Amino acid sequence: MYVKSSHWRSPSQPVTSSNSHTQASSCKHSPSQTSDHATTPSHSLSRSTTPIQAQHTRNVKMTQDNPSKLGFYSPCWQGLLQAAKLQMRLQAVLTHPIPEHQDAMQLAQEVLDTKLWVCHQKKLKFENGYFPEYSPQMCRLLCDDLFTFCTELKNVVISIAKLSYDIFLKGTSLRSEEIKKRVIAAATKLLKNFVSQALKDVCLEFFYSDSKKALKNTDDFHQTIPVNMLILVAAMKGVISVFSETGTDKSPELPTDRCRTDFNKLWASVDKLLDIPELHEELQEMLQQWAKIGTGESDWHADGSAAGSDVDINIIL
Predict the structure, then answer these.
(1) Where does 255-309 have alpha helices with state H?
(2) CA angle 144-150-155, nearest 5°?
(3) Spatial distance between the Cα atoms of 42 and 13, rounded to a whole number of angstroms
(4) pLDDT tens for residues 262-299?
(5) How is 21-42 classified by DSSP, letter by letter?
(6) Is the pLDDT of residue 210 over 70?
(7) Measured between alpha carbons, how far is 33 from 309 in angstroms, rounded to an integer?
């Protein structure tokens, strides 16, 4: 999708009405300011004028020589790219959290185009010499961050499995074979009960953390958790499966291809679930309740009504 031109493309229409609460910084604006509704352009894009740029060129001392790394760019461009990372994660969640490489690059170009268009409308100034010269590398940076997103999720799953569900014993005097049996039994039990509790714990820990790139910083996660994201977390059951199979605490490998395959299989099952009105409604209510807990609008321990709101969707997993 990259076009070698001094002109960049404006979105012809928005794909989502999401509003991310991280904005690209400019010479006159703080990165923490709230942006206008950030949208992703459709595949049919029109030409527009170039964004307003400062007269000086690339002359700021950078910490990186690689244009695929954030440190290569000036503070103004770093602010824009940080905002684009969050939007890239959100748009992937709303479409396919584990896209093929070509699809990811195409999405990255669309997200970048949109962020630049928003800055153009706001008349923000950026240094010359970065765009469009390094547009492909900027897209690579966004794609790398998206795949890091899945790795971060896997680490949260491992952490919760280890710390919250007592899969691995601490300070035990049991023999190694007894420990292995204990780990296998605990992990197997967690697998059977993964949706009802562990799935919720992972969603709240990961999507509603204090990270600047946490998806709670987007409007889409204020009211509910998108079903796509629930399925991606469920696909991470492969992490627990490895503990159940091996009985060791070695961090399991979880290749991208395997995650993508698991996601696609689960999505086919969820499609069937969503065709059942009663289950569809229950699932929506559950995800809305989790979002309220994540944003602090509902106290899981104080609100007794929340205890019965979870849907047993093990039938699709």
Answers:
(1) 256-274, 277-295
(2) 120
(3) 6
(4) 888 888 888 888 889 988 898 889 899 999 999 998 76
(5) S-----SSS-TTSPPS------
(6) yes
(7) 36
